C-alpha cells in the first residue's frame, strides 16, 4: 500500500503542485483511506519531505568508478536521468518555487535533500583528492556548485535537450574547471 500511496503522492504533486496538494487528494488517488495516510504522515509537509527525500537521496549514489572522470560522468548521468523523468520535471521547479514562499518547506528539503546530496557529492571529490586527481586545496563548495549547476540549468530551468555527447563534453569541462 505504501508504494501505491507514494505513486499517488507524486502524481498528485505533479498535477496540483505543493500549494494545492492535500493528503485527502492523495488518499483518494491511491484508493486508500485518509486514516492510512494520517497514521504515517501528519501533514503534507511531512509527507513531501519524507517521500521526496527518499527518492532524491536514493537517486544520488555518487558511484565510485575508480576515476574522477568516471565518477563525474556517473553523477551527471544520474542527475540527467532524474531531471528527464516527466514527473520530476514538473515537481522539482514547483518545489523550488514553493520553497521561496514556504520557508519551512525549503528548510526541511534543504536538510533532507540538498545537504545529503552535497555530502555524497563531496565524497566524489574527496576520493579524487585521495587518488591525486585533484589538488588537496580544490575549492569544494564551488566544485559542488559546478557539478550540479550547468546540467540542472539546462534541463530544469531552460528545458533545452542535450546532444548524445553532452554529458561527456560537460564532464570534460567540469574536470578542467576543478583542476584550474
TrEMBL record:
A Pfam match: TetR_N
DNA-binding region: 22-41
GO molecular function: DNA-binding transcription factor activity; transcription cis-regulatory region binding
UniProt keyword DNA-binding, yes or no: yes
Entry keyword set: DNA-binding, Transcription, Transcription regulation
All copies of domain HTH tetR-type, residue ranges: 1-59
Organism: Streptomyces rubellomurinus (strain ATCC 31215)
Highest taxon in the source lineage: Bacteria
Protein name: TetR family transcriptional regulator
